[in-house]
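Progress report, Aim 2. The chain analyzed during this reporting quarter is listed below.
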Amino acid sequence: MAIYLAGFYDKKSLENSREYGLFFESLVYHHLRILANLFKPKANIYHYRTIGGQEVDFIIEYGNKLVAVEVKMADKVKYDDLKNIRIFIEEYPETIAGLIIYTGSELKYMDKKIMAVPISNIL
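Predicted structure tokens for the chain:
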């Protein structure tokens, strides 16, 4: 609905827009929010950004456990995409996992504590 109200009436115009990745990130956020609300007690979701500009899209906090989540509008995940999650894990060693949610189809381990997860696995 929001995409339609934003003026994108067909798939091609949406895919060619600069907002395409933002809509994808919003879709992931809403699914994470639903998941967080199912936990008892509820989990919290934050955004992480350093003074130097490194950021992680979402941090899920449940008790003293953290999960870092990056969202990538890409069919393949590169090792460079792990950089900000690695920085976060170094600063917060209590992080139990880092996830990169992307548009590809392969579920794969990328690094210690970091997995690439296709969006189809969480929808």
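The longest helix spans residues 20-38. DSSP finds four helices and six strands in the chain. These observations will guide the mutagenesis work planned for the next reporting period.
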